[in-house]
Specification:
2 domains, 6-stranded parallel sheet, single chain, disordered N terminus, alpha/beta, Rossmann fold, 23 helices, 22 strands
């Protein structure tokens, strides 16, 4: 007896709710999702969806392709598309044999569709399903590069706005790397995403090759009917995607007979960011559907030429204008308007998930030398405030320039919420990656000294217009250092005191005048004890010229000590992006007691923000540093953890503006 699609999906949703552990606990069928990002992005872009899936009790592996995200490789070192996709291929090869029940749901977004297609050809027996989230979906028997060529022809060269072609520094790689432009990202990729996520992305995108001239990408015999073509493939059509127009998405579906189709409305190209909860629900339903023992009939979706773009499409429902074949009967169903409820919990509402995919063909053939765009861009006007604080917009007396410096193992990305809040209020915010941090291309064993590590900050201040004259206030920045970043801002204040309106130490290392900076690190370690750092690790030093060993934070340390009041999704983000870092306690500059002088560093206006609930730098140690620095202003900040810019970003933005206003008073 045929069952309607609505009933099947409702049954799937109910069973999913029943078997998914609440708050990540309990038993039930747990799926393993392997998530693959698109061009210029990394595993980090899945942070919201990965958190939602894990919270429901599922296993999630979000991977950086080579030279993407936090991968240590650089774009000119990745010679082939197979090398680029190696992290995915290696992860699938490492799975237990399929007979042991380890079959994963593989999800590719945007350009990541090519990597998951290659993986499906290599390891079809290890895949329960391959999901193309508004992704490149090449057909059997044709070169994968053809899909890229057709897409570029479809949208036209001007479509990519300010995206850029970069110089190719490796002659063994055909074609040039590309990087997305801020306008392209804002208008085509993130137009429905939160402004802070655009800020985050602009701080993290990296140059990438499309590999359209790669031998593997040009091989018409690569994808076979017997392997890639035999896998269960699902295409998620994102109706509001401005990067891969819905018409081109449906063209790819039409070229792949037998592919199931699901519609999502109300999301942009970055569906995992603009509608993460709905996408997570959908992925679980797709994983559950057709599992052995579910008694669900086989479902084949045959693409239709007609399409309704009604905005009431439900993310959990198969495309309503396609023909649904179950047990030999053709079924149709209307778009639902009901909520799907299981055990009293709403599983799905008819609000929708969308994803947006983007491919970068530059607007011209002119090469560009810069490999990294500005770290971030401003958002629309938005009032900040809450908790009794007056809005930043109303309080602002000046448009200030904030320069934000991260702590150990982190990067500019950790400021994404606070920086977005400052920009929405009309201020300028420059969040910087120190060398070998965040998306900076250097590796930890290439950064020999603390001065080299702090070079991006020193160069940024050196490049500022000279202070003085009527424009004095406008040319002086508010320098904000967090945690270990306190040492970098102290060095910058010593070198450029005339360009700094104030130096803010946000629960940061604050060295006193006349003592080596490394002494503060040693005192902190002695204060908390070695066991304090839990599962953090000291790594082997690969460069004999660098004294000491690099360190990297452990997941338990981050969860319990650094992020204990932050949203769970931000812990997921942090775990996907931290990089090994040297503390440089043996560095000559760090050990120089004469480095920080009363006349320069000591003459700047210094403000210490005491974060009362910080477990990373206990409040008692914060106050000890203050006591060693006479004349420093002190502001108490409650309700935040060590990552105050993440756990309480709006409140922090308010505070920074008040500090800046005072710094610019006559």
């Amino acid at each position: 007896m045929a069952i309607s699609c609505m009933m099947m999906m409702s049954q799937a949703a109910s069973s999913t709710a029943a078997m998914a552990p609440r708050d990540g606990e309990g038993g039930g069928r747990r799926h393993h999702f392997v998530l693959v990002h698109g061009l210029c992005h990394g595993a980090w872009c899945w942070y919201r969806v990965a958190t939602a899936l894990r919270r429901a009790g599922h296993r999630v592996t979000a991977l950086d392709m080579d030279a993407a995200g936090a991968s240590p490789a650089r774009v000119d070192e990745v010679r082939t598309f197979e090398d680029y996709s190696r992290p995915l291929l290696a992860a699938l090869a490492a799975l237990p044999p399929s007979g042991d029940g380890e079959r994963v749901v593989l999800v590719g977004h945007s350009h990541g569709g090519f990597s998951v297609a290659l993986a499906a050809e290599r390891f079809p027996e290890r895949l329960a399903a391959v999901v193309f989230l508004t992704a490149s979906m090449p057909p059997v028997g044709r070169a994968m590069a053809n899909t890229t060529d057709e897409y570029v022809s479809f949208v036209g060269a001007d479509f990519f706005l300010d995206s850029r072609v970069l110089e190719q520094t490796n002659p063994d790689i055909p074609g040039n790397p590309e990087i997305f432009g801020p306008n392209f990202m804002a208008q085509k990729l993130y137009q429905l995403s939160p402004p802070e996520d655009l800020t985050l992305a602009l701080s993290l995108i990296r140059p990438a090759n499309r590999f359209t001239g790669d031998a593997l990408m040009r091989d018409a015999g690569l994808l076979t009917k017997e392997r890639y073509g035999s896998t269960r493939r699902v295409f998620v059509v994102v109706e509001d995607d401005h990067a891969i127009p819905v018409e081109f998405q449906r063209r790819m579906v039409a070229e792949n007979p037998g592919v199931e189709v699901v519609d999502i409305a109300g999301a942009d190209h970055m569906a995992m960011i603009s509608k993460p909860a709905k996408l997570a629900d959908l992925l679980v339903i797709l994983a559950w559907y057709q599992e052995p023992g579910t008694n669900a009939p086989s479902l084949v979706v045959q693409p239709s030429t007609s399409h309704s773009s009604s905005p009431v499409a439900a993310s959990s429902i198969v495309h309503d204008t396609s023909q649904l074949v179950a047990n030999g009967r053709v079924l149709r169903h209307p778009r639902p308007t009901l909520e799907l409820v299981a055990d009293g919990h709403i599983l799905h509402r008819p609000c929708h998930v969308g994803a947006r995919r983007r491919w970068t063909r530059p607007p011209s053939s002119t090469p560009h030398a810069r490999a990294h765009p500005p770290m971030s861009t401003g958002g629309g006007a938005m009032e900040l405030g809450g908790g009794g604080h007056e809005s930043v917009e109303r309080r602002r007396r000046h448009q200030h320039h904030f320069v934000l410096v991260h702590g150990l193992c982190h990067g500019a990305w950790c400021w994404y919420k606070a920086a977005a809040a400052l920009r929405r209020a009309g201020h300028r915010a420059t969040a910087l990656d120190m060398a070998a941090s965040g998306a900076h291309p250097a590796r930890v064993d290439e950064v020999r000294t603390f001065e080299d590590y702090s070079r991006p900050l020193l160069d940024a201040l050196a490049a500022l217009p000279p202070a003085g004259g009527d424009g004095d206030d406008e040319e002086r920045v508010v320098l904000v250092g967090h945690s270990q970043g306190g040492f970098s801002v102290a060095l910058a204040a010593e070198r450029f005191p005339e360009r700094v309106a104030a130096v803010v130490f946000l629960t940061a290392a604050m060295p006193p005048v006349g003592r080596p900076m490394s002494a503060t690190t040693v005192e902190h370690v002695n204060y908390v004890g070695v066991e304090f750092f839990l599962d953090s690790m000291e790594l082997e030093q690969q460069n004999a010229d660098i004294p000491g060993n690099p360190v990297i934070f452990g997941p338990n340390f981050m969860a319990q000590i650094l992020y204990h009041l932050s949203p769970q999704e931000d812990l997921t983000l942090g775990l996907s992006l931290i990089r090994p870092t040297n503390k440089f306690t043996g560095d000559a500059l760090m050990r120089d007691p004469g480095l920080l002088t009363k006349e320069r560093y000591g003459s700047t206006r210094r403000v210490f923000v005491v974060v009362e609930d910080d477990r990373g730098i206990p409040v008692e140690f914060q106050r000890r540093m203050i006591a060693e620095n006479p004349g420093v202003e002190v502001v108490d900040f409650a309700g935040a953890d060590h990552m105050a810019m993440i756990s309480s970003p709006a409140k922090l933005a308010e505070l920074l503006v008040r500090i800046a206003d005072k710094a610019h008073e006559p």
